[in-house]
Write a structure and sequence with these properties.
The complex is a heterodimer of chains A (57) and B (245). Chain A is mainly α and 57 residues long. Chain A has one domain. Chain A is built from 2 helices and no strands. By secondary structure, chain B is an all-alpha fold. Chain B has a domain of 155 residues. Chain B contains 9 helices and no strands. Chain B starts with a helix and ends with a helix. The chains are: A mainly alpha (57), B mainly alpha (245). Chains A and B meet through helix 2 of A and helix 2, helix 3, helix 4, helix 8 and helix 9 of B.
Chain lengths: 57, 245
């Protein structure tokens, strides 16, 4: 087996090792994206509110 | 220096300073993680007992450490918020909960995936695993309680009390492998004189641990910023900020 193949094979534990790392990656990425999305949503909300209030008087 | 901390206590300045730190933290965290993974997946040798399956350790152990660390930060910040009515401490406490829950979830799931080939079972009801599962429920309880109470300051106080009561679980998790007979292996790193682990495995493990700490710091700042914005939505500085964007 070539070096790279061997690396991905993980001595026969490929499914276990790589699924662990995949799950970890997904969880970490979600953690970073969640506050970015929330912040955008909130700023959008506040901007709409500001426009409404400016029109009122 | 004192002025710096004083400024950090004001929501407006916290928002600005945290915003400046976030890109640097993110870059440092990614670099450190990549370096740690390279050391752990490529450089570190295969374990003579567990083969390559032990490489799950490089995420399992830092996640488990962080699940406890984040809990202590959450309970500590909650206590500070309770005692000194520091708003920022409340914000840090509540922002920590989902991150801690994520680390706990990762520790449990990667533990299960590691347990299958090594112990022959995804899950056993032993002391450490059960206590860690309770930790996950504590985090989820904190999040649920916070969102269930309308007034954020009351909610923060309720959450702080729950978090502080839950601290009893932390030493139980930590010492569970010594107090009870368990399948889970004992500590190999924190034995002071001589860690029973190859240095080429220990170094990437510690690098990953630092990277995970940075990750927590990064995400807790990101979350805290949103929480501050939400709480200060009627303040002048938020209005100006929205105006500019």
């Amino acid at each position: 087996m070539s070096g790279l193949q061997e690396f991905f094979h993980m001595g026969g534990y490929a499914t276990y090792v790589w699924s662990s790392y995949a799950i970890a990656l997904v969880v970490l990425v979600i953690n970073v994206l969640a506050p970015i999305r929330q912040r955008r949503k909130l700023l959008g909300q506040l901007a709409r509110r500001q426009r409404r209030e400016r029109r009122k008087p | 220096m004192l002025r710096f901390f004083h400024q950090l206590g004001s929501p407006k300045h916290f928002y600005r300073i945290a915003g400046r730190w976030i890109p640097w933290l993110a870059a440092l965290c990614v670099l450190l993680m990549l370096y740690g993974l390279y050391q752990g997946m490529v450089v570190a040798p295969t374990d003579y007992q567990q083969g390559d399956s032990y490489r799950i350790m490089f995420i399992h152990v830092p996640s488990a450490w962080m699940s406890l660390f984040v809990y202590m930060v959450m309970a500590g910040a909650g206590a500070v918020g309770l005692i000194w009515h520091m708003k920022l401490a409340e914000v840090i406490a509540i922002s920590s909960a989902p991150i801690g829950a994520s680390f706990t979830f990762l520790a449990l799931i990667t533990g299960a995936i590691w347990g299958k080939p090594m112990w022959g079972a995804w899950w056993v009801w032993d002391a450490r695993l059960t206590a860690e599962l309770i930790l996950l429920f504590l985090y989820l309880g904190v999040m649920a309680l916070y969102s269930a109470i309308e007034d954020k300051r009351t909610a923060a106080r309720a959450v702080a009390i729950l978090a502080i009561v839950g601290v009893v679980n932390i030493p139980i998790i930590h010492y569970s492998v010594e107090w009870w007979n368990t399948l889970h292996q004992g500590p190999t790193v924190t034995k002071f004189d001589a860690p029973s682990i190859d240095l080429r495995m220990l170094i990437p493990l510690l690098i990953m641990a630092v990277a995970f700490k940075l990750f927590y710091l990064l995400v807790v700042l990101m979350r805290a910023r949103v929480e501050v914005l939400e709480r200060e939505r009627n303040a002048q500085w938020v209005n100006e900020l929205v105006n500019k964007s």
